[in-house]
């Protein structure tokens, strides 16, 4: 794999920022990714979005400049794009207002993950409220919290969930449960059920020695104030608003590389939904 | 799920069974609190954390006074063998001193005739998980004493970080019963000092940071049987509101607000724990305490007033029923947990009417004084003129008039909010001098920047956070990160400060006043100091082995007055030092504010006792000597 791979932090960041041209150079595809965002991206470049980044660069005839930030992925727009360390993020919600986004290249949703031997049935978010399913693993700050709150299961589960981050003080610091942990908790019997965005869980479900069942949730949440919280999301490539000229070539690359990208998603085991 | 199953272990199960049997026989009304009142009348004793039910931390003794305080010298000392923060103060009843420690929460009894010998020690086995669950060091705030009756001998009560309340025989230290009050599996810990009223022992709760729904619980002193539990949030029947709750002050709010002031079921994880101090008026038969901050910490996640967090409560001890509650900081945005000390006094108000008062220096920088019979708000003064989140507290509505510039709402970086999240006053147990009619306040002089942010991610995920930076208030030295504390003498009727002095660090632990005209307190950098209660002049000080976050006490033994204080730096201001943290925003910014503390003190833990010229039982060097052949 020909990846121009940079561990960027500290001095590296400054140098790169200084070197960046005013107009994006389409021969050099600058993609920000996180070292702590498996399965999307990790420090070794083994995330499926790292692979997709390479496909895009290949299709564009560009060199991939994968700018790795040693931060949680939630900071990539603020600390990567907005600081002009890079121009592109591989996976964002279609229509993310902070960026220009391409046509979605896949769509998936939140899912329930249980051990197969638990015979869990149900594909509505309300179905988490079942006898015998009391402990839930999920990633923090996600609609999984809303599902548990609305089914009356959140409060009881709160401290189990806190144990997954070793009771780290959440007051003014971003804490997160690794996606792999959310799934191993289910496999090991620590949690009865996981609620997780399927792309985050797919490879761990696929690789689990304990057979697991992953069921996409089919409905959406209507919040008490009437706001709809979708549980299915289309994913697009995000481009810095300061470089709109990149959008066209990337759209083209998504088209020409579609077969390769689909193969990566399939290999990952992500349950895909028809684009809406 | 019942989280309150009694835990009876090994040897104590017999005692438990005996105790329960005895409880059945008990028919006479309780008189123990009369006994505690009597015991507290003798200035030789210090029978509860605030000395007596008025929680005045005031001693009538005058043997040590302005004239001779310079002669105070160490008489004896005791190491608890525990590092970390030592909050609270020891108790003295008759010939005995009872000493608590932070986790592992060992209890010691010393014989004051020969303090070099430990009469008994009771060291619990605790789930070590408790250490990780506790938010701000592993402190404990003290013990409670129940004087016994015809059937059951006197008892000592302690709380454990792992959420248990324990009754021990005061004579032998044997565990009599142990109950789980708070489940650490749900993030609930215990740091509060238990409190005895009649034949009940009251216990609060900790862990609002983790979403614990706060409550206060009363247990039968003899059996550990739970008598009642009152929550700070939720339905009225779980709040234990009296029929006429807040009837004298309907504008404080009355029914159904524990639900209506929250969005959805958020009250279930709404915080409002109480880990501060109690006070009690046997005539009115109400006890007083403050409920803490709402959860979750970030205000945008919990729209509404979030009642009844942040409230001053007056409850009947026997039933737990609340007669009044006054919410000081509706919809808290700053973490101004309202658990601070309640000091009771009887004073003439501005109109010259004698009133029963309750005075409470709150974390939000306001000192509130209420009529403790009905909750009427009498005064609400700024502890320091630099308090800026609020312009004033309206006495007629009880509402704070906020300055939006110093709010923490989204899309606004608030600079120089005073006080900081640590409050201008935290857990310190302060004192009231009834002769001078002033409250001696130990104060934090710390402000903060608060930068909230909201970061969206993918698939409906987003993070709401804030960056906090703390530093000395405007009267301190911001360049050098010193001048973080004050000590003041406050008149609750006139609203004036009789005197005030700056301190290098916060006066975190509280004060003690004496009829000798002295105000004692300990400092974070490890001094015990005595000031002239009339002028604030510094008359005496002594450098202790470690910094102080507890409050001083005084007792008399064998005709001699002693002053004692616990040392052992830690607690919230010491988290950086204790856990060796370097990030200035860690500990919600405490690490940055107290970055220089380590230049002045290091960890330690124990009790230091002083007397005039250092006279003690060991002034006769033969006391406690080893004599071959004598029985041990």
Automatic annotation (TrEMBL), chain A:
One GO BP annotation of this record: methanol catabolic process
Cellular component terms (Gene Ontology): periplasmic space
CDD domains: PBP2_MxaJ (cd13531)
Signal peptide residues on this chain, from the entry's feature table: 1-24
Keywords: Signal
InterPro entries: Methanol_oxidation_MoxJ, Solute-binding_3/MltF_N
Domain Solute-binding protein family 3/N-terminal: 28-268
The protein, known as: Solute-binding protein family 3/N-terminal domain-containing protein
Source organism per UniProt: Paracoccus kondratievae
């Amino acid at each position: 794999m020909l990846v121009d791979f940079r561990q960027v932090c500290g001095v590296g960041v400054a140098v790169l920022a200084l070197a960046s041209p005013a107009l994006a150079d389409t021969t050099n595809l600058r993609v920000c990714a996180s070292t702590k965002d498996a399965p999307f991206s990790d420090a070794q470049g083994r995330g499926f979005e790292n692979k997709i980044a390479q496909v895009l660069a290949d299709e564009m005839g560009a060199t991939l400049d994968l700018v790795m930030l040693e931060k949680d992925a939630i900071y990539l727009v603020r600390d990567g794009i907005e600081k002009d360390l890079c121009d592109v993020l591989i996976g964002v919600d279609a229509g993310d207002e902070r960026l220009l986004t391409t046509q979605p290249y896949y769509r998936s949703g939140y899912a329930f993950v249980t051990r197969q031997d638990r015979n869990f049935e149900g594909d509505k978010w309300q179905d988490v409220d079942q006898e015998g399913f009391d402990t839930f693993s999920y990633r923090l700050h996600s609609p999984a919290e809303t599902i548990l709150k609305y089914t009356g299961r959140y409060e009881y589960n709160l401290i189990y969930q806190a144990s997954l981050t070793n009771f780290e003080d959440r007051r003014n610091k971003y804490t997160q449960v690794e996606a792999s942990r959310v799934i191993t908790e289910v496999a090991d019997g620590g949690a009865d059920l996981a609620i997780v965005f399927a792309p985050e869980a797919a490879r761990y479900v696929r690789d689990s020695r304990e057979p697991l069942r992953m069921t996409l949730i089919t409905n959406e949440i209507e919040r008490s104030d009437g706001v709809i919280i979708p549980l299915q999301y289309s994913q697009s490539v995000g481009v810095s608003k300061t470089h709109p000229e990149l959008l066209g070539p990337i759209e083209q690359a998504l088209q020409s590389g579609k077969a390769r990208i689909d193969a990566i998603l399939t290999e990952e085991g992500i349950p895909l939904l028809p684009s809406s | 799920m019942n989280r309150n199953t009694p835990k009876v272990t090994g040897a104590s199960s017999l005692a438990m069974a005996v105790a329960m049997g005895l409880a059945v026989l008990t028919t006479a009304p309780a008189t123990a609190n009369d006994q505690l009142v009597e015991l507290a009348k003798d200035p030789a004793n210090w029978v509860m954390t605030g000395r007596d039910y008025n929680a005045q931390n005031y001693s009538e003794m005058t043997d040590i006074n302005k004239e001779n305080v310079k002669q105070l010298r160490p008489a004896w000392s005791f190491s608890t063998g525990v590092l970390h923060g030592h909050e609270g103060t020891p108790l003295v009843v008759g010939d005995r001193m009872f000493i608590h420690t932070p986790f592992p929460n060992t209890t010691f009894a010393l014989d004051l005739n020969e303090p070099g010998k430990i009469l008994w020690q009771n060291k619990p086995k605790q789930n070590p998980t408790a250490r990780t669950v506790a938010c701000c060091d592993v402190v404990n705030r003290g013990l409670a004493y129940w004087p016994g009756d015809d059937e059951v001998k006197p008892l000592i009560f302690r709380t454990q970080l792992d959420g248990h309340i324990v009754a021990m025989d005061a004579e032998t230290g044997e565990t009599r019963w142990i109950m789980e009050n708070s489940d650490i599996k749900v993030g609930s810990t215990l740091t509060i000092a238990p409190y005895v009223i009649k034949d009940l022992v009251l216990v609060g709760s900790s862990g609002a940071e983790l979403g614990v729904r706060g409550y206060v619980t009363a247990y039968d002193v003899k059996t550990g049987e739970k008598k009642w539990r009152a929550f700070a949030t939720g339905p009225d029947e779980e709040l234990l509101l009296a029929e006429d709750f807040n009837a004298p002050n309907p504008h404080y709010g009355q029914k159904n607000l524990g639900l209506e002031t929250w969005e959805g079921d958020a009250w279930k994880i709404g915080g409002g724990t109480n880990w501060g101090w109690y006070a009690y008026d046997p005539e009115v038969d109400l006890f007083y305490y403050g409920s803490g901050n709402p959860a979750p910490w970030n205000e945008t996640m919990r729209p509404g007033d979030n009642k009844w967090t942040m409230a001053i409560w007056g409850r009947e001890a026997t039933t737990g029923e609340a007669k009044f509650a006054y919410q000081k900081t509706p919809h808290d945005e700053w973490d101004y947990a309202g658990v601070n000390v309640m000091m009771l006094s009887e004073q003439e108000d501005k109109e010259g009417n004698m009133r029963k008062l309750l005075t409470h220096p709150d974390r939000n920088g306001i000192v509130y004084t209420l009529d403790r019979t009905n909750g009427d708000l009498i005064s609400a003064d700024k502890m320091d003129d630099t308090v800026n989140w609020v312009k004033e507290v309206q006495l007629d509505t009880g509402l704070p008039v906020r300055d939006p510039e110093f709010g923490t709402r989204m899309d606004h970086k608030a600079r120089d909010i005073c006080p900081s999240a640590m409050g201008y006053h935290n857990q310190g147990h302060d004192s009231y001098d009834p002769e001078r009619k002033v409250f001696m306040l130990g104060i934090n002089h710390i402000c903060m920047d608060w930068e909230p942010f909201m970061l969206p991610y993918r698939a409906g995920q987003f993070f709401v956070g804030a960056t906090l930076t703390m530093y000395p208030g405007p009267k301190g030295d911001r360049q050098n990160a010193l001048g973080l504390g004050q000590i003041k003498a406050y008149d609750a009727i006139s609203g004036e400060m009789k005197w005030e002095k700056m301190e290098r660090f916060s006066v975190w632990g509280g004060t003690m006043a004496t009829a000798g005209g002295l105000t004692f307190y300990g400092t974070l950098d490890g001094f015990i100091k005595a000031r002239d209660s009339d002028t604030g002049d510094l008359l005496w000080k002594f450098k202790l082995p470690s910094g102080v976050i507890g409050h001083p006490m005084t007792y008399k033994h064998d005709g001699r007055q002693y002053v004692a204080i616990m040392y052992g730096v830690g607690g919230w201001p010491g988290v950086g030092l204790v856990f060796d943290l370097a990030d200035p925003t860690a500990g919600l910014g405490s690490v940055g504010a107290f970055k220089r503390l380590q230049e002045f003190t290091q960890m330690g833990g124990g009790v230091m006792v002083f007397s005039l010229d250092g006279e003690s039982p060991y002034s006769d060097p033969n006391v406690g000597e080893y004599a071959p052949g004598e029985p041990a």
